[in-house]
Predict the structure.
Amino acid sequence: MREMNPLQARLISAALILGASLVPVALPATAEPLVVGFERFGSEANTGVSSGLLLYNELSCSACHGLATAQQSAFPKRIAPKLEGVGERVRFDYLRAFIAAPHAVKPGTTMPALFAGKSPEDVATASDVLAHFLLSLGGSFASDSAKPDATRLARGEALFHSVGCVACHEPTKAPNTGHSDDPFWEADTVVEAPEREVPSVPFPDFAQKTSAAALAAFLADPLHVRPGGRMPDLQLAEEEAAAIAAWLVYRNEATPPPSEVSYDPAKAEAGRALFQTVGCAACHEIDGTNSVLAASALTSESLEAGGCIAPEATGKQPWFALSENQRAALRALFSEAPATDAPTAADRINHTVLALNCYACHDRNGLGGPEAGRAPYFTETEALDLGDEGRLPPTLTGVGSKLTPAWLEAILTDDGRVRPYMATRMPHFGEDNVLPLVSALHDVDKVTAPLPVDVTGLLPHHRSHYGRELMGTNGLGCVTCHNLNGTKSLGIPAVDLAFVPDRLNPEWFLRYMLDPASLRPGTRMPAFFIDGKSQGSKLFNGHAQQQIEALWVYLREVKEIRLPEGMEDGADYELKPTTHPIVHRTFIENVGTYAIAVGFPEGIHFAYDARTMRPAVVWRGRFIDAESAQADRFTPFVKPLGESVVSLPTGASLAPEASGPWTADALRFTGYRLDDARVPIFQYQRGALRIEESLRPAEDGKSLRRKWVLSGPPQTQWVRIGVGEKENGAVFRIGELTINVATDTPVEAGPEEVGWILPVTVTESGTSIEQVISW
């Protein structure tokens, strides 16, 4: 058991003097103030922000000592919680104990210990009269009428672990990767998250501090009490806030103490005077005003000597219990000449996203994003097969060139939500804290050499009926993946494209359509345009930019005109590949929820399983019906419409050794692209090994030619042919299938359950291998 520190000893002594029942919570190894940006990034080399300046701002040092440098004005102001009505939110004993020794009651708090270093009797007296003064500011605490039932507590725990709370706070259970709405998710739908490296923002003992009802009111509108935005508004419905609050208060089978305290007027008056003299008014406003103490000279000597950042408290100044790293960062700030240059737009972005901890959810220019220990808690609301794009918040890299200023403002201050399938909410931080980001992002991210794009609608190729044709199943097939104007897509429900003209800058849309991966690495959006030519339509002779401009004009007018082919009510949802291949993502029987169906005009088709990275089913004749995916995402899995439906061997197709492992666990599917013939090229990786795989009709029009291209550092990989009978050379019969491997390398017998395997020598430029599948 760790030895009691001096703060704990003083708090217990003060509590005994006061007769309070509250005892300090168990402290971690250190109780210094937690500033997440400082702990995660530390040095200026990472963020462009001095770590000392970040601490100076987030500890509200400027409330007494003024701005450290001109750069500090680029931070959103750190505003202390409002104290009016605090007696309605916080139990008296907790309030008194927190004033006495904040670091012992709530480790990680940025509130300094005002009376550290003084005698227990002085601490007890001062904290008692201050607490009575705060009670006099209004509000009467009311305990919960009854303990919430188990269902509400489970609902609160589920919401806490899904809507975004664990981006900053410590999770208490494994993440729900089964996307179940049932808060009692089963063991087989969870995974163990890696250990978290970024410290979590600690909680107080809520049962000792507040009631579930009071906490619910705070969670519903945290900016009302804490306008500084460090605790953002997650846009919780009333029921959601109540459920989370109930779980936080009662999760440890807590029995909250009774609360029947009223303030003593004489003590309240003494507390009012003390509130001014000890410095509370430097940070906290009462009735919208404060009385800032005389500013100290900004030098390391005056701040550290016997005071705020000293290693030990002396009782002369507030004490923050800083770690040595924190003191060193502040000393470095004081030792440097104050920067006089006015902050730039880039400074404002860097300082704001760091102070508000936007990096917990978003990355920008390679910095930040969910850390490994928290990323599994970012989930889809349903099992929609959208990959990381469906669960992780989007990158902030280049967001100022991507989004229109109006949409940026809507996202930051209102709603602007276009990803309802993402469980994590976009929080609101308060207009004053984030509105300056709109112009700053626009200025910093603007493209220096924009591509010319004409979306006026005046040229012949801008006619919206051309865009409608391109959008539909006989054009580029956008509606097979994207919702449109509230109508469900034919497959996975990706972002509703009707928002595009309001959300996106036309120039960004053009760049993205020309090369999706260049702006969103890892996206599942296929590349439709290669070398300025369309891969999916002969409109305008395949001219890429003219087709993209036509799409834009159609989307601009989509609310007034017809939906694309394949999406209109009463449409025939059978997908018919007549002139080019059709790629359709849906749930397919004997393939699963990661199925990608590919149909060819030759009448020969297959379904690819993106989970195990293998073709799973082949068939002939009619392709597939998309109506069930359009009507209800959770109807029974669809079946191929044709005949001669044959399942291919299960299991992974590649292994690093002949002995295995023959599983897809180490493989990572990275999407697909379309070649010149609009045939999808499936892409996946294992470490530095890159694999591209495709299937297309063979020359006889009755078989499928499967091709792998393996590239990466020189090595040997093993390709699985399958379990079956070897006839001659490299021809095999596997049930109804005949597989012919085009190779001069002898095929070998692998493990019994794997069957026949083939060694392949990988080169950096790429090694290909083909087989023909007949049935």
Remarks:
- Residues 120-135 form the longest helix (16 residues).
- Confidence is low (pLDDT under 50) at residues 21-30, 291-301.
- The radius of gyration is 31 Å.
